[in-house]
Amino acid sequence: MGARGSAPQLGQMYVADLETCDSDEFYKVDGEGREIYKQRVWLAGHRNLETKKTEWFTSIDDFMKSVLSRGNNVNTEYAIHNLKFDGSFIIPWLFENGYSVTHNKPDSKQFSVLIDERNNWYSITIQVTKKRRVTFWDSAKLFPIQLEYLHEIYGTPTKKIHEDDDFYNQKRPEGHIPTEQELEYFFNDLIVLEETLNEHIKLEGLRFKKTQASQAFYAFEQSFPAWRLRFPALDDETDALIRPAYWGGIAYVNPAYAGKDMYNVEVYDINSSYPHKLADYKMPYGHPIAKKGQGVQPDMSKFWVAEALISFELKPDKLPCIAAKGVVEARPITEDFWLSDSEGVVRLVFSCIDYYSIRESYDFEIISWEWCIEWPWKVHKELKKYIYKNNEEKVMYKKKASEEVDPQLKREYLAHSHRAKINNNAFYGKFGEDVIKRGKTPYFENGDIVYRVDRLDILSMHKRKYLPVAIATTAWGRRQLVQMANMLGKEFIYCDTDSVHITKAGARLVQAMHKEGKIKIDKTELGAWSLDGRFDRARFLRPKCYYEEKYGEYPEVTLAGLPSDKHSGARSKKRSCITWENFHIGLKLPPEVTGKLASCRTPTGTKLVPVGFEITEKLLHFLK
Question: How far apart are CA 181 and CA 183, in angstroms?
Answer without folding.
Answer: 6
